[in-house]
Amino acid sequence: MAAKTTLNEKNLCALGAERLASLVMELATGNAALKRQARAALLEDAGGEALAAEVRKRIATIKRSTSFVDWHKQHALVKDLDQQRRMITEKIAPSDPATALELMWRFMDLAESIYNRADDSNGSIGDVFWNGCVALGQLADAANPDPSTLADQVFNALFEGNDYAEYDGLIDHMTQALGKTGLARLKERALAAQDELAANPPKPKSGRKIGWSSSGAIYEDDFQHSSRTRTVKYLLQTVADAQGDVDAFIAEIDPEVRAVPNIAAEIAVRLLDAGRADDAMQALDSVEFSSDASQYRAKEWTNARIAVLDALKRTDEAQAQRWQYFEQTLSAEHLRAHLKCLPDFEDVEAEERALEIARSHSNIHSALAFLIAWPDLRRAADLVLAKRGDWDGNLWHLLPDIAQALAGKYPLAATVLLRALILDTLIGAKLKRYKHAARHLTECASLAHVIEDYDDLPSHEEFTASLKRDHPRKNAFWTLL
After folding, report:
1. % of the chain exceeding 70 in pLDDT
2. What does the pLDDT read at residue 45?
3. How far apart are CA 478 and CA 465, in angstroms?
4. Does residue 317 form part of some domain?
5. Is residue 341 a part of any domain in this protein?
6. H-helix or E-strand containing 118?
7. Which whole-number Å values give the CA distances from 382 to 33, 150, 366, 454, in the listed order?
8. What region does 313 belong to: left with phi over 0, alpha with psi -120 to 50, or beta?
């Protein structure tokens, strides 16, 4: 009897069409989203044109709405928007990609009105429109529209709209559909806009005051002019990229900006792809690279330089660059690449030297993470014990996994890390982490059975006694045990 009453698709089918229809009508009463979904299912059987008309009507209704959507109503709005997007891409597009493309442009046009009246603090609305932008490119590939007309649509979307970055990446998605003709048209429109902006600069302090900066008031006309100028630069750069025109890409970057390490790296990579390794090296050499640069920028610049050095057959310099970056950052990626280029037997010696460098690195947490990932559990355990009082127990996202990796062969090292986590939690009275600290203490009790020598560390019983002595009133923690 229980199997027949379980709520599943098979048992529901056994109810019969009439009873299911009655249930759907009952549930749809007062539930607008379900009602629209049921109606859409009926329209699918009626044909693509009817479904397209329904989606077009729903998009128009959403655009006319002016009520504010706060965070607790946001889920329903996102679900409605995503349903319309999926109707277009999954139900209409297979049989009528041209209509689906037209509807997706209408759908994307909702972005400004939605953002103006909705709370998107968690980014879920942005995700819907990001997916819509990707879908535009896919639908354009399938519909094969006139390239010049498509270029005008792309230009208008980026130049007149995109206030909320809903069209970011559009040209990349549309490159195939635009083809040579469309890209040429897009460049033509961008150059014309660039000339017009240069010929019509805003009057000083014209328009409304819309904000303040460190240099004074921000005026609407000046802000819009600057924004459109940046958009045109982006258009011309992206089109140049799509056309493989490296010089045009570089021309749209201000000379002082080319000296920024990651920008110089972008230029160098493009020059290298174009077979211009000497020019690529010149672009990198024009940068005053600082060791204080962020690790992200340093990695981009380093990778570009290594690629260019390899292309120029300057192998020793490329190897030195890999090694230097490894020493600075403990990048396993660069160390593996360095070792791969070494002759047999030399790589073994270099690896040993590298692992010792990692073990003595100034950032002990980075060193430990590297040794675990490499992996070299013996050195990792030695490091844990050597720095037993220095581990940051607030690194809850790092230390538990490392302790688990060490527990099998090196239980004492695992215990040191678990104790650091427990102490940080209790000393800081971090109530939300008490359950994790209790689990860690239980793990320590389990490891205690296989630890023969605690060296100069307190035994598990002594450590637990010290916790009870120092934190007797943290009942929320002790009750978990």
Report:
1. 91
2. 57
3. 12
4. no
5. no
6. none
7. 60, 63, 15, 14
8. left
**Three-state DSSP string of 29-79:** CCCHHHHHHHHHHHHHHHCHHHHHHHHHHHHHHHHHCCCCECHHHHHHHHH
Domain ranges, residue 83: 46-144
Which among 372, 466, 362, 458 is positioned nearest to 415, based on CA atoms? 458
H or E element in which residue 108 lies: helix 97-108
* DSSP per-residue string spanning 138-192: HHHHHH---HHHHHHHHHHHHHH--TTSTTTTHHHHHHHHHHHHHHHHHHHHHHH
Question: Does residue 101 contact residue 145 with C-beta atoms inside 8 Å?
Answer: yes
Place of tokens 């215990």: 415
Q: Who's near 396: CB < 8 A, 6+ residues apart?
A: 421, 433, 436
Q: Total domain count for the chain?
A: 2
Residues 302-312, buried b or exposed e (16+ Cβ, 10 A)? bbbbbbbbbbe
Is residue 111 assigned to a domain? yes
Residue 52, both tokens? 């397209």
Which of 111, 144, 177 is the last residue in one of the domains? 144
- What phi, psi does 317 have (nearest 5°)? -70, -35
Final residue of a structural domain among 87, 112, 144: 144
Domain contains 381: yes
Read off the pLDDT of residues 178-202 as tens digits, 9 standing for 90 and up.
999 999 999 999 999 999 999 999 8
Phi, psi of 86 (to 5 degrees): -70, -35
Helix, strand, coil: what percent of the chain each, to 5?
Answer: 70, 0, 25
Residues 293-317, mean pLDDT to the nearest whole number: 88
What's the Cα-to-Cα distance from 288 to each of 269, 278, 284, 301, rounded to whole Å?
Answer: 18, 18, 9, 11
